[in-house]
Write a structure and sequence with these properties.
Blueprint lengths: L6 E7 L3 E8 L4 E8 L9 H9 L6 E8 L6 H14 L4 E4 L1 H10 L4 E6 L3 E6 L5 E5 L11 H17 L6 H11 L5 H13 L4 H6 L2 H9 L3 H24 L7 E4 L6 H11 L9 H12 L6 H13 L5
Parallel strand pairs: 1-4, 4-5, 6-9
Antiparallel strand pairs: 1-2, 2-3, 6-7, 7-8
Helix pairs in contact: 1-2, 3-11, 4-5, 4-6, 4-9, 8-9, 9-10
């Protein structure tokens, strides 16, 4: 993108990764930069991550929208985040949580409930008239049910119960799950290796969340204990949708999804069995940020702009 082209920027930050996308007013993509996670509750170096991304935004950027996991959950963190951006970016900017950004993108500002399941889980719903609510998003200590971290933790809990004999019914889970983790299959060395694995983790939440891919693959292969875990996750995530609909009883809320956990076809289909087929997101989460930034910059991001931007992001592989 030529340095003289007016542009906007969006930053989508989660617990494990952060994405910067710059879009020119002529539809050309500027810098697309991926960095480590920027959730201040998960990542101690979140400030350096944002600093590095902000430094790569062109001087011609007229507006910036950020959607960062954890934003709004702590006034102290929120103030620090906003101060950091204000010091580095002199133009107008907006700051929201990542799930609100994803909801804006998924429905283009219309009514709906966006179910986000990545390292954590939360739903964001809007009635399309300016009213918005959040469901879930209470964090890994006493919430995040149905998230990748929750699934991974449940799988590890099941593994430990198999190793010490508390569970006698799900032996079929032990060998394929432990094997996929690279652990020994005999119980005693497996337990020792499991503790060593966990003790060496630099980012425990992200590493535990990554185990969801194993559980999902085993579920799709028909392994019953893995299917049960994924169905339990679907039950929890489905209740997020139901709770949001109860808050807006006079508005039909289609649902859509975002986050790495939804790479699981098994999970998507289990939720669809309860709430119908999901709506294909009009824009990916970072596209929701671009939509907000375009409005902030005084552009006219109408339906045709949304469609063009969706195609640009899709062609660039920026779909999640």
């Amino acid at each position: 993108m030529p340095q003289t082209v007016p542009c906007i920027a969006a930053i989508d930050g989660g617990g494990t990764k952060t994405l910067l996308v710059v879009l020119g007013q002529d539809g050309t993509l500027g810098p697309v930069v991926r960095a480590a996670g920027s959730n201040p509750f998960d990542q101690s170096d979140w400030q350096s991550v944002l600093h590095g991304l902000l430094a790569q935004i062109p001087d011609t950027a007229a507006a910036l929208s950020l959607g960062i996991a954890g934003y709004g959950e702590s006034r102290i963190h929120g103030r620090r985040q906003a101060e950091l951006v204000a010091a580095a970016f002199p133009q107008p900017f907006s700051f929201t949580g990542d799930v609100e950004m994803a909801c804006t993108g998924a429905f283009g500002g219309q009514a709906g409930v966006l179910l986000l399941s990545g390292t954590g889980s939360v739903a964001w719903a809007t009635d399309g008239k300016g009213n918005q609510i959040k469901v879930g998003g209470w964090g890994g200590l006493f919430g995040d049910e149905g998230s990748a971290f929750w699934i991974g933790r449940q799988a590890l809990s099941l593994l430990t119960m198999l190793l010490d004999g508390r569970n006698q019914e799900d032996q079929a889970f032990l060998a394929p799950f432990a094997g996929a983790m690279g652990l020994p299959l005999d119980t005693e060395p497996c337990g020792t290796a499991l503790l060593e694995w966990y003790g060496a983790l630099e980012h425990p939440r992200a590493s535990v969340a990554a185990l969801t891919r194993i559980v999902s693959d085993l579920a799709e292969q028909g392994l019953e204990p893995a299917r049960r875990l994924m169905h339990q996750a679907a039950d929890h995530l489905s209740e997020h949708i139901a709770a949001a609909q109860r808050r807006f009883p006079e508005t039909r809320l289609p649902w859509s999804y975002a986050g790495g956990t939804f790479q699981s076809r098994f999970l998507r289909e289990a939720i669809a069995a309860r709430h119908g087929a999901p709506v294909e997101p009009r824009l990916p989460p970072v596209g929701g940020g671009l939509l907000s930034a375009a409005r902030l910059a005084g552009w006219n991001p109408d339906d045709s702009w949304i469609s063009r931007t969706a195609a640009i992001l899709r062609d660039a592989g920026l779909t999640s």
